[in-house]
Design brief:
Number of strands: 17
CATH superfamily: Alkaline Phosphatase, subunit A
CATH topology: Alkaline Phosphatase, subunit A
Structural class: alpha/beta
Radius of gyration: 20 Å
Shape: globular
CATH class: Alpha Beta
Distance between the termini: 36 Å
Number of helices: 12
Strand content: 15-25%
C-alpha cells in the first residue's frame, strides 16, 4: 500500500498533536538479515504496532545470470536513516522487503570514505583514495561495470537526482584524479563512458553541451525518454521528491517516474541493460542535519525502488540491488522512537533522534538484493559478518557474465 505525499504531509500535521516529549536513549540498527534471508521488516521498533509490513511485497524470481541489473544507491543512507523512514511511513520500506540482505563496509584507502572513492569502489571493484574518480590510487583508469555491460551488448543508464558532475554518477562514467575537475569528468563521461542514457537534475547549459557536442540527443520531456530511439540520450530535469506522478508541463518530475521511463528505454535492447539510479540528496539531509530533507529524499528514493519492482515483477531475468555509498550525519534514533515522533520530527520538533556528525561516518550500510540468492558468505572478509563495497561490483559482474 503506497501512500501519497499529500497523505504523508496530512499525517505529519496531525501527528504534531499527539507527540509525547519523553526522554529516550540510543537505538542501534537491527541487522537480523545478515548473510542470507532478510528478516529486517518491521525492525525499527517491533513493539510499535503502527509499523507494519507491506501488503504485497514483490519478490522477483531468482536467477543466476541476469539479463538486466539495476543498482540503486541511496547516497548517505545508513541503517538509521532507513529505520527513521520506516517509522515515518508507519510501514516497512520497499527495500526492507527484499528477500536477501547483508551489511557493507565502506572505508576507502583514506579511511572514512568520500563519495568519489565510494562510487569508484562500487563501480569498479577497486578501492581508491578520497577525491579520485574512476581511477586507482596510482591514477590509472579503471574498467567500470558500465564498460562491462556495454561489452556484453547491453544498454546502460545513469540517473541521479543531482547534476551529472556529482561524484556518484561520475564514478560510474567519468575518470579524473580529482572530483573537483568538473570539465574533465563531464568530457570523459560524454565521450568515452559507453553510457546510452544520462538523466539528472537540471544541467547547466555549459555542462549539457558536453553531451550534445558528443552526439547525445537531448530529450526535452521526461515522458519522451521511454519512446526515444536514439542510441545516446540525455535528459535534464527539475527532480522534485514531492511531485506525483509527473507534472503536465514535463518540467518537474518525480524520481520514481523518471526511473520507470528509463527502464522502458533501456529494455528496448534485446541483450538487456545495466542501470544505476541514485537518490543523491539523502546525503544532503545528513550533512545539513535536516531530518525533514532527509526523510523526503529517502521516501522518494524508496518510491523509485517500488517503481522498479513494479516494472520487473512479471520478469524472470532481472536483479535489483539497493545499497548506499556511505552513511552521512551519524544519525541515531532514540530507543522507543515512534511513528508519531518521526511525524513530529518531519515538522521540526526535535524528538526521537539526534545527529552526531555533519560529515560521513564509517557506519556499515545495508545491501538488499531481489532476484538473486547471493552467497554473501563467499564475499565476507575477516569473519566480520559483512562484505566490502568492492564486492557489490563483483556480484554485479558475476550476475551479468
Amino acid at each position: 500500500m503506497k501512500k501519497t505525499w499529500k497523505k504523508w504531509l496530512a499525517l505529519a500535521a496531525a501527528g504534531m498533536m499527539a507527540v509525547s516529549m519523553t526522554g529516550c536513549a540510543d537505538l542501534t540498527a537491527k541487522l537480523t538479515g545478515l548473510f542470507g534471508k532478510n528478516s529486517e521488516s518491521g525492525s525499527a521498533d517491533s513493539s510499535d504496532s503502527e509499523v507494519v509490513g507491506l501488503d504485497d511485497p514483490i519478490i522477483l524470481e531468482n536467477v543466476t545470470k541476469a539479463k538486466n541489473v539495476i543498482l540503486m544507491i541511496g547516497d548517505g543512507m545508513g541503517p538509521q536513516q532507513i529505520a527513521a523512514g520506516e517509522l515515518f511511513k508507519g510501514e516497512s520500506l520497499t527495500m526492507q522487503q527484499f528477500p536477501y540482505m547483508t551489511t557493507v563496509e565502506t572505508r576507502s584507502l583514506s579511511g572514512t570514505t568520500d563519495s568519489a572513492a565510494a562510487a569508484t569502489a562500487l563501480a569498479t571493484g577497486t578501492r581508491t583514495t578520497n577525491g579520485i574518480v574512476g581511477k586507482d590510487s596510482s591514477y590509472q583508469d579503471l574498467t567500470t561495470i558500465v564498460d562491462i555491460a556495454a561489452s556484453l551488448g547491453k544498454r546502460t543508464g545513469i540517473i541521479a537526482t543531482e547534476e551529472l558532475h556529482g561524484a556518484t554518477p561520475m564514478g560510474f562514467s567519468g575518470h579524473s584524479n580529482a572530483r573537483g575537475n568538473t570539465n574533465e569528468l563531464l568530457e570523459s563521461a560524454a565521450t568515452s563512458s559507453n553510457v546510452n542514457l544520462f538523466a539528472s537534475s537540471a544541467l547547466a547549459p555549459k555542462n549539457l553541451r558536453y553531451f550534445t557536442d558528443a552526439g547525445y540527443e537531448k530529450i526535452q520531456l521526461p515522458e519522451d525518454i521511454s519512446t526515444a530511439t536514439e542510441e545516446k540520450i540525455v535528459g535534464s530535469y527539475a527532480i522534485d521528491p514531492l511531485m506525483e506522478p509527473m507534472s503536465a508541463n514535463g518540467g518537474l518530475v518525480a524520481f520514481d517516474r523518471l526511473v520507470t521511463e528509463a527502464l522502458e528505454y533501456l529494455s528496448q535492447d534485446e541483450d538487456g541493460f545495466f542501470l544505476m539510479a541514485e537518490g543523491s540528496h539523502i546525503d544532503h539531509g545528513g550533512h545539513n542535519n535536516d531530518i525533514n530533507y532527509m526523510l523526503k529524499e529517502l521516501i522518494s528514493f524508496d518510491d523509485g525502488v517500488q517503481a522498479v519492482l513494479e516494472w520487473a515483477k512479471d520478469r524472470d531475468d532481472t536483479v535489483v540491488i539497493v545499497t548506499a555509498d556511505h552513511e552521512t550525519g551519524g544519525l541515531l534514533l532514540d530507543e522507543g522512537a515512534t511513528h508519531q515522533d518521526m511525524l513530529a520530527a518531519y515538522e521540526g520538533v526535535h524528538i526521537g533522534y539526534r545527529w552526531t556528525s555533519s560529515g560521513h561516518t564509517n557506519t556499515d550500510v545495508h545491501c538488499y538484493i531481489n532476484g538473486a540468492n547471493i552467497d554473501f558468505a563467499s564475499y565476507s572478509f575477516a569473519d566480520s559478518g559483512r562484505i566490502k563495497n568492492t564486492d557489490v561490483f563483483q556480484i554485479m559482474k558475476s550476475l551479468m557474465e
